[in-house]
Amino acid sequence: MTALPSRARVVVVGGGVIGASIAYHLAHLGVTDVLVLEQGTLSCGTTWHAAGLVGQLRASEAGTRLVRYSTELYARLEAETGLATGYRVCGGLTLARTPERMVQLRRTAASASAYDLECELLTPEQAGERYPLIRTDDLVGAIWLPGDGRADPADLTQALAKGARTLGVRIEERVRVTGVTTVEGRYRPRVTGVRTDHGDVECELLVDAAGQWAPLVGAMAGVNVPLHSAEHFYVVTDQVPGVHRDLPVLRDPDGWTYVKEEVGGLLVGGFEPEAKPWVAPEDIPRPFEFQLLDEDWEHFEILMDSAVHRLPVLAETGIRKFYNGPESFTPDNQFLLGPAPECEGFYVAAGFNSVGIASAGGAGRALAEWVVEGEPTMDLVAVDVRRFPASAGNRAWLRSRVAEVLGLHYAVPWPGREPVSGRPQRCSPVYERTLAQGAVMGTRNGWERPLVFAPSGVEPRLDHRWERPAWVDWCDAEQRATRSAVGVFDQTSFSKYLVTGPDALATLRWVCAGDVDVPVGRAVYTPMLDAAGGYQADVTVTRTGPREFLVVSSAATTERDLDWIRRHAVGDPAVVDVTSAYAVLGVMGPRSRELLGRLTAAPLDDAAQPFGTSRLLDIGRARVRATRITYVGELGYELYVPTDQAALLYDDLFAAGADLGVAPAGYSAIEGMRLEKGYRAFARELTPETTPVEAGLTFACALREPGDFLGRAAVEARRAAGPARRVVSFVADDPQAHLWGGEVVLRDGAPVGQVTSAAFGATVGASVGLALVGPRGTDAGAAGAAGAGGASADWCRAGRWQVDLAGTLVPVRVSLRPPFDPDGVRIGRT
């Protein structure tokens, strides 16, 4: 029987490639009192049957940097440990069968230039030269990424484990975790140890890297780990003439398939459009080590037929082995990383959606740094485990969603694409009313919310394309209605928290960079920053009483924000989520005051309610909190109404405003109008790697006031040094050029950044957006290290600016001021 230590500082549950990488990186950071517990043997769960593809380019700068570190680590790991990893740089070839796919590949190639990755656009003939086995007569083109490669998953895990052991980490196999012990803390339980079938172990921190078993480990501590397994298929063929060790990794996403060399044969797998969910975590057989599921040739047929079409040699090649191995997938195709909000000291690293081998090195380092530093050292918002509500852990919902998610790996990544499965999940009180008005719904954090409203008699459906889609005309009408009269927006999905008690003010003065010690009835726009000055939240704080504050944030960040405030609370304030208790109706536009004036006897003029104030009013048949504020750049109000009165208020607004031109409007209209005003958004312009200095929002920080706040010293230092990069507004010169966000920005012909947000602005009559730009060499890592001051105002104003729109260079006008109403006259118009 294995004799376990009585305690360890960190216990890692799971001995796959992720758990091994976390242990390795903890040890390299000096944390060697680590115990890894594996219920079977190393790599026996999902890791061993992974295909082992290591593609460097990801959809974001942060994601690309994470995977690039993986490749750097794998390239040197064998020399360090003496164990082979099977890592080999062979290049990657991605094909396009359709013009739509080729647009995506051209956008991908442009992104590669922004990330300093070598990438080449190829003709079909050139693709055939790179990969002589493929059929090319039906191709439109391809891209070549010479830095892509592959690794042997089991060997890589063993190498990482040896590297960890060498530095003092203890790894125990054949030990099953049966429970997690906790004690009550201020806001939630705190981890004190684990129970196993070989005895108990005390610990300070626990990392759940248990793969498809991670939800079971999480449940032992009351932690939500939203992932579900799906069957994933590939075959390995007999040897094929012409196949060699350096054959590139082939991806044919229009055929849902990937191919790599495997011992002289070919490994052929893919991501079929409709996947097969496997059992829920609690129903996984035990033991389940180095095991596969039954062959399913009927389900695999769509992939095999596509592969034979692309590689005709497969029609004459035997199949050596059929692999059907379950892998875990998350609701949004991004993995889960970071501290669980439900339990102090409990971290999650799971749900890697078939990119675990490519991500393992970077994700392992990122989580290890998070554990050591107490905060992430890079932008990990997209993979933060706290991005999901508790409802995302519902097994039936997850099973429905995972069938869709797996197939999205190789679907065309249309801008604004919305998931279709598992909906609706969370509904506003006016959900049915907006549907009746023609709303096309999107979803955020489970909430259904209107994106755009179709005209009467037109099917309310988004048409996806790279060019300007038809629904943008509907959105333009909503923008014009809001700019000229009044628009009503259902913004119920806002996250809303009450922070109350004697310590409420002290807490918010510490976690908020803005001055929130204001009179009752004032609303303050403020960032919440980390110690490095980076954005952790972008919120509005309204003082609703001497010891009570209402904090309003974005729909996607509920769990994350609550966790942040609680972790950094001063004293013992009550921090309560009231998101579902209140609907929010945004009433925006130059006639918004006139509309509300018809429904209330209270005065609404500037003297009675100036901008940035909030008060309780009777409006129509409802008692609401009316806050005069705007995110669209017009006179406007956010009406916070109890959910049971929201539908009545909605009806009253449209009845009273019929002759004023009142119109329902959606989030797509908000996007266009907020970009015309240069308003920033969290997770796009405002990230943990962006400070208020780069964002141009130091006015929202109380830098002229005495007293400290979290991140103040870092912001002051960055301001003194000057920003290495800067958020700028831009407008496209060509009104026909439709930008979506993510495009590369060039200055005098050289890549200097990327578009963070873009939309068509109806008022400026062209695509408008925000971009994060700076001289070459000042990436987020460099900027975070020392703000070199390279992105001066003069540098931004000078030069010839363009945006790479899938290979077409579109001239843009760049400005440090908003393109529309830069002086904010319309916001205060009486």
From TrEMBL:
Transmembrane segments: none annotated. Residues 373-428 form the FAD dependent oxidoreductase central domain. Residues 9-370 form the FAD dependent oxidoreductase domain. InterPro entries: FAD-dep_OxRdtase (IPR006076), FAD/NAD-bd_sf (IPR036188), FAO_M (IPR032503), GcvT/YgfZ/DmdA (IPR028896), GcvT/YgfZ_C (IPR029043), GcvT_C (IPR013977), GCVT_N (IPR006222), TrmE/GcvT-like (IPR027266). SUPFAM superfamilies: Aminomethyltransferase beta-barrel domain, FAD-linked reductases, C-terminal domain, FAD/NAD(P)-binding domain, Folate-binding domain. Pfam families: DAO, FAO_M, GCV_T, GCV_T_C. Belongs to the GcvT family. This is 4-methylaminobutanoate oxidase (Formaldehyde-forming).
